[in-house]
Design goal:
16% strand, 2 domains, alpha/beta, Alkaline Phosphatase, subunit A
Length: 491
């Protein structure tokens, strides 16, 4: 970061906003401009005026949603055992995957030296659900029960073949670490709807599948080259929900307020002299931390939730840190207009013993995921909330390691995988995309990771090509240099 360059950028924005909003004529002009698109002036929600409105001030066009809940299945769930039914594969059991299907695709080091690639059909039963007749596995009966509410994309693909670059890619738009995460881009572009809670909050759920799970790095919800105030805030399940949330013993609230006021004056003086935007970010973070001392304890106290609501999420909802409890908290965050909520559920990297471990993983997430979507709908929140469920890539039709009729493992597969979405602007009861009989190659309507991210930004009222940040001589954006909105999944 170049402090002098950033100071010039910040000064230019402040001068522009000052000229635009300080005079009656300019304000009327802005109001007239907003009415051309049928948009309210800056925000229809009065709470947004209390928070950072973001650099865009208003969306590029009328949004269909105003918040996102990302349910990220870290490790890559097997599309073959959940959403992409391939019954013909039972005829191919233990036969080698045809070379014409693999077509020279590079493999991971975990299977590249295997003598053969035996086909492992799913042992799980599938049935059809919803108006589209979407085929879903017996492993996810609760998600299947809301088939008429979700849109399944079976034709996702990515460029990364290993977990860390693939997760970094889907979260930040680049396989290389250092770029802003999706939630940070939203915080930067659209700002916060709630002055007392962060715009971007993250939870890490416990899991019961394979214990040797992929590590999660804070850069997955980091701000990259953006000012650090836009990074995600992690909610913990043990101790203070956020580190240092409680005042130290002997420190009164009035003392803390006075200390922060004096510290802010010192920091503003430094910012005026040096112009480092990180100083301004630090001021904003201190103030948010102070407000969170009241807002976060109220957020995580679920004692006021009726039992019939808790029952939607399943028996583990009152166990702190479980996926069920995280889903309930996600709904409470949505009620409080947290812009971007992300739940990570680990343990989906099933290279071996897939049938036993995927059963436990699905038991963790099936009812809470469906319960979250039902709860949002009952409260009228699903209309302006987008829920995304999925992982970083898919799994192979061929077996990794020993194959038996009851047991198998699957390697990483970036060429095709499945996710689903629900909420405002999304076609309900819809299936998008097709794969070949081996769930190995996409045969219809491919959706790249950048296409997915461009589509989510579109639902939020953002032109993905226009949300940029200048850094080190070039303009950066979440979708890098490509990405197309997938209009076929939108209403």
């Amino acid at each position: 970061m170049d402090p002098e360059l950033e100071m010039n950028i910040q000064e230019t924005r402040r001068q522009f906003f000052g000229r635009s909003l300080s005079t009656v004529g300019s304000t009327l002009g802005l109001a007239a401009l907003s009415q051309l698109d049928g948009l309210p002036l800056l925000a229809s929600d009065p709470t947004q005026t209390l928070a950072n409105p973001g650099v865009l001030l208003a969306p590029h066009f009328k949004p269909k949603v105003k918040r996102v809940i990302s349910l990220f299945m870290s490790g890559a769930p097997s599309q073959l055992d959940l959403f992409d039914h391939k019954p013909k594969m039972r005829e191919y059991y233990d036969k080698d995957l045809p070379e014409t299907i693999r077509d020279g695709q590079r493999l991971t080091t975990m299977t590249s030296d295997q003598a053969r690639f035996p086909i492992a059909p799913s042992i799980f039963e599938f049935d059809r659900y919803g108006p589209s007749g979407a085929e879903m596995s017996e492993l996810i009966p609760n998600i299947a029960s809301i088939a008429d509410k979700i849109c399944i994309i079976r034709s996702m693909f990515t460029e990364a073949i290993n977990h860390d670059p693939a997760m970094t890619f889907i979260q930040t738009g680049s396989q290389q670490p250092g770029r802003p995460s999706f939630g940070s881009w939203l915080s930067y572009g659209l700002g916060s709807l709630n002055a007392s809670l962060p715009a971007f909050m993250v939870m890490q759920a416990t899991w019961t599948g394979r214990k040797e799970a992929q590590a999660l790095f804070e850069r997955l919800w980091g701000a990259g080259m953006l000012p650090s105030e836009y990074q995600g805030v992690t909610l913990r399940s043990i101790g203070d929900p956020v580190l240092y949330l409680s005042d130290p013993p002997g420190v009164e609230r009035t003392t803390r307020r006075s200390m922060l006021d004096r510290l802010a004056r010192l920091n503003r003086g430094i910012a005026d002299r040096i112009g480092d935007p990180e100083t301004l970010a630090r001021i904003a973070q201190y103030e948010m931390a102070y407000r969170m001392q009241s807002s976060v304890p109220e957020l995580v106290d679920t004692s006021d939730e009726p039992q019939h609501v808790k029952d939607l999420y399943g028996p583990e909802v009152d166990q702190s840190g479980t996926y069920a409890s995280c889903c309930l908290l996600a709904r409470r965050m949505a009620e409080r207009d947290v812009r971007f909520v992300q739940i990570y559920h680990r343990g989906w990297d099933q290279h071996g013993a897939l049938p036993s471990t995927i059963r436990r993983q699905c038991s963790d997430v099936d009812q809470p995921t469906a319960g979250l979507i039902k709860d949002l709908e009952m409260r009228g929140l699903l209309d302006d909330t987008l829920v995304i469920w999925g992982g970083e890539f898919g799994r192979t039709i061929y077996c990794q390691g020993a194959l038996t009729e009851e047991d198998y493992g699957r390697d990483h597969h970036p060429r095709c995988f499945s996710i689903f979405l629900a909420g405002g602007g999304i076609k309900q009861g819809h299936v998008h995309g097709e794969t070949d009989d081996f769930s190995y190659n996409i045969t219809k309507d491919p959706v790249h990771v950048h296409d997915l991210n461009a589509t989510v930004l579109h639902l939020l009222g953002i032109d993905h090509e226009q949300l940029i940040y200048p850094h080190q001589g070039r303009d950066y954006r979440l979708t890098d240099v490509h990405g197309e909105v997938v209009h076929d999944i939108l209403t």
